[in-house]
Specification:
By secondary structure, this protein is of the alpha+beta class. It is 33% helix and 32% strand. Strand 6 and strand 7 form a beta hairpin.
């Protein structure tokens, strides 16, 4: 699988008239597409100075070397979501394989998250990734973080203890990631995933609602009344009072027309019509 074949795949998918966008949260991991690539990697590891390193540390340090970039291009790069191999990833530009290598952690943790934004194409042929039949995604953007880093970057509401805010933010993020079939390939899930990593107000507001003895009871996405030539959705957060069962709803409008979602309306009270 050469760099030219990756470029050709990207062009074929981009030129399709029917496609869908992907905005997914998961983990990027390399796979060996065939025994030949696996044996070549084993030879590289055998020649490298990896004494005392764990397997992930050895892989990251080896693939990060410029002289080994040829092997990076040969590997099959996969996004796993909730432990399931969901997408086969290809960069739009072969030079962007650096982003894939950067996503490898020397010390992986369960709270590591990779965000991929791109264009979904056809199911890969069996020979592309050692028999894995998953959709190909041409990736335009990758960014990686750990949950603690994300939460530290979110402004904490005044008067809220750090541990309380951290617990609420983690709970909300993981609930979003665990929504049924959230592979980031529908408009609804793209909007929710965008908010999870780009709109800190949902974390601050959920913390405030917890302080008022409300629990987050539902996250729902509906087409917006503002949709016309643009595709806009309302993401609705429902909070239920733990004593009275009274439900309060708040919503955010997100434009999902193109590849990169963006905020249309900030978090506001939602009233059923």
């Amino acid at each position: 699988m050469s760099s030219s074949s990756n470029t050709n795949d990207a062009r074929r998918i981009t030129n399709r008239t029917l496609h869908s966008y992907v905005y997914a949260l998961g983990r990027i991991q390399p796979r060996f597409p065939n025994p030949s690539v696996e044996k070549e990697y084993a030879q590289l590891i055998g020649r490298a100075e990896t004494a005392g390193q764990t397997d992930p540390q050895a892989m990251q340090s080896t693939l990060a070397k410029r002289e080994n970039r040829y092997l990076v291009r040969q590997l099959c790069w996969v996004l796993t979501i909730e432990g399931i191999e969901t997408y086969i990833l290809k960069p739009r530009d072969p030079l962007e394989f650096d982003l894939f290598v950067d996503a490898l952690r020397p010390i992986p943790r369960p709270t590591d998250i990779d965000v991929i934004i791109g264009l979904r194409g056809p199911i890969a042929r069996a020979e592309v990734c050692n028999g894995l039949m998953a959709p190909i995604v041409i990736v335009d953007q990758i960014y990686s973080f750990d949950v603690d880093g994300l939460i530290k970057a979110i402004p904490r509401p005044k008067g809220v203890r750090e541990n309380q805010f951290k617990s609420t933010a983690e709970d909300l993020l993981f609930r979003i990631m665990q929504l049924a079939d959230n592979a980031g390939g529908t408009d609804e899930h793209r909007a929710i995933n965008y908010l999870a990593v780009r709109y800190s107000a949902i974390y601050a507001h959920t913390t405030e609602m917890h302080g008022e003895n409300f629990s987050l009871s539902a996250v729902e996405v509906r087409p917006s009344r503002l949709s016309g030539t643009r595709k806009i959705v309302d993401v609705i957060f429902s909070y239920t009072n733990r004593k009275t069962d009274v439900i309060e709803k708040y919503f955010v409008r997100v434009d999902v027309t193109e590849e990169f979602p963006f905020l249309v309306t900030k978090l506001s009270p939602f009233y059923e019509r």
